[in-house]
Design goal:
The chain has helices spanning about 1-10, 20-50, 55-85, 95-130, 135, 140-165, 180-185, 195-225, 230-260, 270-290, 295-305, 310-315; strands spanning about 10-15, 90-95, 175. The N and C termini lie far apart (about 65 Å). The longest helix is centred in the middle third of the chain and has 35 residues, at about 195-225. About 35% of the residues are buried. It has a three-stranded mixed β-sheet. The protein contains twelve helices and three strands, in the order H-E-H-H-E-H-H-H-E-H-H-H-H-H-H. It is an all-alpha fold and about 325 residues long.
């Protein structure tokens, strides 16, 4: 069976260990969360694009986050939902599809960091250099920053998967509930030192640059707020930065947990749970934390559903 699978390019996913009794509740819960992710994130994107008052650099950059969250959730959740009612011995996936899924999974994770980095830059300019904000954060600058966030994630991830697909396979069981780079190169009996070095180096570079840029940004913002005696400035800084920082910390914790658990094969079940929580919880929370907590978004929603009187009450 294994030789036939290797020859035909068919792999077997381990998937989540769900009992028959808990399969239906887990399926319904995961499906509802997926629907919420799609509706909330796509709804926010449409709201920002249709409302002139929300067509500001901060919200246009946030559209990258919502689109990326929809992309990441769609890559993983429907696949997991399908496998819940399939026996562990029949959770097949073609090797080509597995590579594509792994590429998309890593692109989603990397883009989450790069998008938050450009959003941090936007907050830095808005608070530390407000007089030049309009001149710096033009529509062209927003488009350039957005393209840079996606391209700077896409190219290294393409190299990452390129190093993996060159390897020959001697196994056919993917030790995860979805395909990722580490699970793919683990299928090979060749030396994977190059893959491990590049993967670890890229992870350190991504997380390191992300942490350093966001930390420096917030240190400068804090310094400006400390020197300023304006309560209005400090209130604005707290309002616009709290949501961004909360989303970033949650993303960082999720990334570190998954990276650490990958180093302990005996904790594979814990890694699967952490991975699915990261793919489900973060996209759902992002729309709530970063979208619905913004005053302008709340006011727009209030006008949309309850009229102008409700918008005044939201202020």
């Amino acid at each position: 069976m294994e030789n036939q699978s290797l020859h035909s390019g068919i792999l077997l996913l381990e998937g989540l260990k769900v009992t028959p009794q808990s399969a239906v509740p887990a399926f319904i819960l995961l499906l509802l969360i997926y629907v919420f992710i799609m509706v909330s994130n796509l709804g926010l994107v449409l709201l920002i694009l249709r409302s002139r008052s929300l067509q500001q650099p901060m919200y246009l950059l946030f559209c990258n986050m919502s689109v990326n969250d929809v992309f990441g959730a769609t890559i993983i959740i429907p696949h997991v939902l399908r496998d819940m009612f399939v026996s562990t011995s029949e959770r097949y996936i073609r090797y080509v599809d597995c590579v594509v899924q792994a590429f998309c999974v890593h692109l989603y994770g990397s883009t989450s960091h790069t998008v938050l980095m450009i959003m941090a830059f936007d907050r830095y300019v808005a608070i530390c250099d407000p007089l030049r904000y309009a001149a710096i954060m033009t529509n062209r600058a927003v488009a350039t920053l957005s393209a840079a966030a996606w391209v700077s994630a896409l190219v290294p991830v393409a190299v990452l998967l390129g190093l993996t697909i060159r390897l020959t396979r001697c196994r056919h069981v993917v030790a995860n509930l979805f395909c990722d780079n580490a699970s793919l190169f683990a299928l090979s009996c060749e030396s994977v030192v190059v893959n491990q070095v590049y993967g670890l180096g890229y992870t350190v570079l991504l997380l390191g640059s992300s942490i350093c840029s966001v930390t420096l940004t917030y240190l400068k913002i804090a310094a400006v707020c400390a020197r300023s005696r304006s309560k209005a400035l400090n209130s604005k800084a707290l309002q616009t930065c709290a949501a961004h920082l909360t989303v970033y910390v949650l993303l960082l914790v999720s990334a570190f947990v998954i990276v650490i658990l990958h180093r302990f094969p005996q904790l594979s079940d814990h890694r699967k749970v952490a991975a699915i929580l990261g793919e489900v919880a973060l996209p759902a929370l992002n729309a709530v934390i970063y979208g619905l907590q913004m005053k302008e978004v709340r006011q727009t929603l209030a006008v949309l559903f309850h009229g102008k009187k409700a918008a005044v009450m939201v202020k």
